[in-house]
Structure formats: C-alpha cells, structure tokens
Amino acid sequence: KIQLWQFTIGGMTCAACVNSVEGILRDLHGVKRAVVALATALGEVEYDSTVISKDDIINAIEDAGFEGSFVQ
Ligand code: 9UX
Q1: Ramachandran region, residue 33 (left: φ > 0; alpha: ψ -120 to 50; beta: rest)
Q2: Measuring CA to CA, which residue among 12, 10, 3 is closest to residue 53?
Q3: Where are the domains of the chain?
Q4: 37 C-alpha vs ligand 1 centroid, how far in Å?
Q5: Pure H helices in 11-53
Q6: Best substitution site from 14, 19, 66 to test ligand 1's pocket, by max atoms within 8 Å of Cβ?
Q7: Which CATH number applies to 2-70?
Q8: Cβ < 6 Å from ligand 1: which residues?
Q9: Do residues 10 and 69 lie in contact, with contact meaning Cβ atoms separated by under 8 Å?
Q10: Quick one: pLDDT at residue 71?
C-alpha cells in the first residue's frame, strides 16, 4: 500500500545536508518520492508499506547521522 508520511529530521544545517538526506531516502527500496525542507526540518516520503516501514526509514536517517522522529 502506498502511504504518504511526514516526519521531522534533526541535525540538518545546510542545503548539502538536505541533498544527502533526500538521496538516502530515495535510495531506500520501497520509497517512491522524498522531499526534505531545511527551514521546517520536515521530511515527506511516499512509500510502499508492504516493502518498507516507518521505522526502517527513521533508522536510515539515524544511520546517516541525523535524527528522525515521528510527527504522526
Ligand atoms: Mo555542510 Mo550539512 O558541511 O552537515 S553538509 S552543514
């Protein structure tokens, strides 16, 4: 099932951080679309919940040295 999900990302301080987080998200199997905003520290992904979970997505962000947390 395709889901749209928003979460917060801590630790991003420049546009290159944004690019690297977006790249990490887009490389995840099951993620169709990823947009990250520096000003609001929000990320939004469209993903297939039969392939990847929210926890997997958060873990990938944390593995890259950022902090991911649930908004909803
Ligand atoms: Mo620029 Mo963002 O060195 O960590 S990539 S601050």
Answers
A1: beta
A2: 3
A3: 2-70
A4: 14
A5: 15-27
A6: 14
A7: 3.30.70.100
A8: 13-14, 16-17
A9: yes
A10: 83
Q: How far is CA 14 from CA 27, 33, 50, in A?
A: 20, 21, 33
What is the 13 CA–ligand 1 centroid distance (Å)? 6
Reported pTM: 0.92
pLDDT by residue (tens digit) across 33-69?
A: 999 999 999 999 999 999 999 999 999 999 999 999 9
**Closest Cα to atom 2 of ligand 1:** 17
Q: Distance, CA 12 to ligand 1 centroid (Å)?
A: 7
